[in-house]
Amino acid sequence: MFSYLRLFYYLLRPRTVFLRRTSNGLGDNLLLTAILPEMRKCMPDHKIVVETPWKDLFANNPHADWVTDKHVKTTRRHIKPVYRVEKRGDRPFIAQMLSYVGSGSVGSPHIYLTEDEIERAAGNYPGRYVTICPTGKSVFSANRREWGLDRFQELRDLLSEYRFIQVGLARDPLLDNVVDARGLSVRESAAIIKNARFFLGLEGGFMHVAKAVGTRSAIIFGGYILAEVSGYRENVNISGEVDCSPCYNSHVSRTPCDSMKCMRAIDPKMVYDRIVLELFESGKGGG
Description:
By secondary structure, the protein is α/β, with parallel strands linked by helices.
């Protein structure tokens, strides 16, 4: 009842702006946190309400006045920042989304973890480790983001001297020789990633989570989407572009790819070499 009363308050208040998610995906909702600081800067006298099914992503965020999972009928005070990617040369997701608030700045997502959350994760998962998530969301992209569990396992085995913690959904397949941290809340997973040497996974939601807590990543892109469109420069971005890539279209669901030649072009040893060179030997992947 209280949440509805608060919603009516903001609806009746003239200087209120509503920021709405474009999908239910983890990554799309997390990217809204990259827009909030610019909204606050451009609209200092407004209250900012975020509509999202991922309310936990916005906990402690100083740029949001209220976060709700209630859906409000769209008004002229709504901002729904969408991105459109159909070809090579399209601007990055975040740049397109920031244009909705008239900003040319370069933003990035941010999760405001508390010291208690970080320390609790360190207590539950002590020591130095690498976080890994070998699967991604396939509802929209079919199999085109997947590198394959066997390749992730081979890569993990090549990095045998390092401890691995696997995050993700409880139903995700579990790799061998990893610590199981599947099925935790997004904030618990974010804190584990925060304390990691780096995150290893696929293009998608957890890649953005790692960025949002300041942890570098090694990301398998394949040829589905260009790293410069959805990724981050400081990461080790591994692509396998072929004649038919990129095949991503932000407004058209994909069917399964039979060849997956872009992913097959990425050998675990090649990924291992880049991780060792760019994350360990450079000193940027932790001690």
